[in-house]
Write a structure and sequence with these properties.
The chain is α/β, with parallel strands linked by helices. The protein has 13 helices and 14 strands. Helix 1 runs parallel beside helix 11.
């Protein structure tokens, strides 16, 4: 595959890992470090266990994709665990950082994490893995549960992904659409990350001997996508349906936050008699977007959507929703149906499990990484398959060697609601492997 950059940094031995020097908390800029109370934690017995400080970074207030719900979810999670005595007696402290959707912003956040001496970076979002991963590796800081949109999240020895990233979503989308769509047009970002998407989608389509999708490029920060919408509808609707194949054409949009802008452009097109359905991945579409675009009367009615996790109405999300209700204080940045918020919740579930497994008065980046490398098994109560990052758990193919969660979910919009199309996870291992083999 083109665009994947290979990591050449050797993995250091455990004896060479050195803890970064901590900066006193008073030096942290106000508003970026969350501490719940002081002294003895609520629900604790006043033990001497050291606080655990982590960072969550994500883009906010940019012209492209924004993920403000991720750091907001991290802070709500900290309030929740700290109100119950912390994690195994450790107060959880959160530093947030605006990644700004730039390589400079990503590198700045990573360097700040090193300067502050955080124990891990957890539940974060950035397309710029080449900018943030090197500073984290230099400081030996583990990166747990990133959103999965950069290559380095699946190649760095200090990254512990909780989902299959954009790769799994697009491969799964191809599998989902192969049997229900006559033709497929993909509208995706004109970027390095976007360049990988057509091969992944086509690998899924090829599994059912479907023709390759039409690749349509779009700017990530555009305010109108009418030309791309027209082209996508034309390509997806090309060729007359036959008596034995009356399936619709499908337009897949994978534009992050700008997917809503594309949907708006698409629904404004003059009506014609072509049978077209819109489809996407759940990193780009949520229930709130379906509601805003007209619900059952909008263009997303009948849409096929591929996600990493169960649909937001699933009972397995109830604990997260209770935490948001009780500890987010009405923070409207946190949408429980948002894939970023969900990923942050799962990432912090991993952190909690690791800290509990260590049963140590002091937590360090090295201790966390070693626990993850040596077989800590994380249950997410069914939100993902069980997670573990030992060698035998990893996919091990070029481009995604550290991918451990190969499952995706198939969902569909019915009567304006996002519901499960299948009740079980769909394994995309073979499709991901085929996408790499086909590009060699």
């Amino acid at each position: 595959m083109t665009g994947w950059r290979r990591s050449s940094s050797p993995r250091p031995s455990w004896t060479s890992r050195v803890r970064a020097v901590r900066i006193p908390a008073v030096a942290v800029v106000a508003g970026t470090l969350l501490v719940t109370g002081c002294g003895v934690l609520p629900g604790s017995t006043g033990g001497s266990r050291e606080p655990v400080t982590v960072m969550t970074f994500a883009p906010q207030d940019t012209k492209a994709t924004n993920m403000p719900g991720m750091p907001a979810m991290a802070k709500a999670y900290a309030r929740w665990v700290n109100s119950h005595g912390g994690i195994d007696g450790h107060e959880l402290r959160i530093i947030s950082c605006n990644e700004q959707n730039t390589s400079t912003g990503a590198a700045t956040c990573a360097r700040r994490a090193a300067k502050e001496g955080v124990d891990a970076v957890v539940g974060s979002y950035s397309q710029h893995g080449d900018a943030f991963m090197a500073p984290l590796e230099a400081a030996r800081i583990p990166f747990i549960g990133g959103f999965g949109i950069s290559e380095e999240e699946f190649t760095s020895y200090l990254s512990y992904p909780v989902n299959g990233g954009q790769a799994a979503l697009l491969a799964g989308q191809g599998l989902q659409l192969a049997d229900v769509c006559r033709r497929v047009a993909l509208v995706r970002p004109n970027s390095l990350a976007g360049d990988e998407l057509p091969e992944l989608l086509n690998a899924g389509l090829a599994g059912s001997s479907r023709r390759a999708s039409t690749d349509i490029l779009a700017a990530e920060d555009a305010t109108d996508y009418t030309p791309q919408a027209e082209q996508a509808r034309t390509k997806a609707g090309a060729g007359a349906a036959t008596d034995d194949d009356d399936r619709p054409g499908c337009v897949t949009a994978a534009l992050g936050d700008r997917t809503e802008t594309f949907i708006d452009s698409f629904r404004r097109l003059p009506e014609d008699d072509r049978k077209i359905r819109v489809s996407s991945v759940l990193s780009s579409v949520s229930q709130s977007l379906i509601d805003r675009t007209g619900g059952r009367n909008g263009p997303l009615e009948g849409a096929f959507l591929t996600g990493w996790y169960p649909d937001a109405a699933d009972a397995r999300w109830e604990e997260m929703k209770k935490v948001i209700s009780t500890h987010a204080f009405g923070d409207n940045r946190i949408d429980p149906a948002d894939a970023g918020v969900q990923t942050t919740w799962i990432a912090y579930t991993v952190l909690k499990t690791v800290i509990q497994s260590l049963d140590s008065d002091e937590i360090s980046p090295g201790k966390i990484s070693r626990a993850l490398d040596t077989g800590v098994r994380v249950s997410t109560d069914g939100l993902t398959p069980p997670l573990r990052w030992e060698y035998e758990d990893m996919l091990g193919v070029s481009g995604f060697p550290r991918l451990v969660n190969r499952g995706v979910t198939f969902q569909v919009v019915r009567d304006g609601r996002l519901v499960a199309q299948r009740d079980t996870f769909v394994d995309v291992s073979k499709t991901l492997t085929a996408s790499v083999s086909g590009s060699d």
